[in-house]
Write a structure and sequence with these properties.
This protein is mainly alpha-helical. Helix content is 65%, strand content 4%. A three-stranded antiparallel beta sheet has the order 1-3-2. Residues 1-40 form the CUE domain. This is CUE domain-containing protein. One of its GO terms (molecular function) is ubiquitin binding.
C-alpha cells in the first residue's frame, strides 16, 4: 500500500506518506485525498510536514480549502499560520459550532467552485457547470447528511448568479465574462469564508 502511494505521489516524501496513512488508519482513499492536497500546496519535505501537522490539528474543524488559503497568505510560515488558525477557532467558536447541514453543504460547494476558477482562471472546464452533474452530486450529498436538497440547490443557483455564472437554455451554467473578474471572485470567496455564505433562499418561499 505504501509503495503504491509512493508511485502515485512521487513528490511526497515517504515519511509523510507513511505518517498520513497511519493518521487515517490505513484508509487509502482519505490518505490519497490529503496527499493530493499536500502536492498542490507544499513542495519541500519541511513544508509537507508542517502542512500535514496543521491538517492534523485543524482539519476536523477547518476545511482544507481554508487551511491552504491561510497557509499561503502567511507565506507558508508554520508558526504564523498555526496562530492564525487558532485565532479563527477561538473567535468563531468553531470547536463548538454545529453548522446547519444545508449551510455546510452550500458553503463547501461555493468555496470549491470559487477556488477552482481562481486557481485555474484559464481552464475552460471550471467556467462551466453541468446542471445534471451538479444536481446528482447535491442530491447524494443531501441524502447522506439528511439535508434539505431543494433549499441547497436553489440557494446554490442564486450564489452562482452572484459569482458571475449564467444559466443557458440547456440549463447548464456558464461563466458569462470572457475575462475572469478575479477581484470580484476573490471578494466572493472571502465573503463565503468570513460570513459563511453569501445568499440563501428563504425556506418559507420554497
Amino acid at each position: 500500500m505504501l509503495e503504491q502511494l509512493q508511485q502515485t505521489f512521487p513528490e511526497i516524501d515517504k515519511e509523510i506518506i507513511s505518517d498520513a496513512l497511519k493518521w487515517f488508519k490505513q484508509d487509502i482513499e482519505m490518505t490519497k485525498n490529503v496527499l493530493a492536497w499536500l502536492t498542490e500546496n507544499a513542495t519541500s519535505f519541511q513544508q509537507q510536514h508542517h502542512l500535514l501537522t496543521l491538517f492534523k490539528h485543524f482539519g476536523s474543524i477547518i476545511e482544507k480549502t481554508i487551511l491552504s488559503q491561510i497557509w499561503n497568505n502567511y507565506n507558508q510560515i508554520f508558526v504564523d499560520t498555526y496562530y492564525k488558525l487558532q485565532e479563527i477557532c477561538a473567535t468563531s467558536n468553531l470547536n463548538e459550532l454545529k453548522e446547519e447541514k444545508e449551510l455546510k453543504i452550500l458553503r463547501e460547494m461555493c468555496l470549491h467552485i470559487l477556488w477552482n476558477i481562481l486557481k485555474y482562471p484559464k481552464h475552460i472546464k471550471y467556467r462551466q457547470i453541468h446542471k445534471q452533474a451538479l444536481y446528482n452530486y447535491l442530491l447524494q450529498k443531501c441524502h447522506t447528511l439528511g439535508a434539505d436538497f431543494e433549499y441547497v440547490f436553489l440557494s446554490l443557483e442564486k450564489n452562482l448568479e452572484i459569482f458571475g455564472f449564467k444559466k443557458e437554455n440547456n440549463d447548464n451554467w456558464y461563466y458569462q465574462y470572457h475575462h475572469i473578474q478575479l477581484l470580484h471572485l476573490w471578494k466572493c470567496y472571502q465573503a463565503v469564508i468570513i460570513y459563511q455564505i453569501m445568499y440563501v433562499v428563504n425556506k418559507t418561499m420554497i
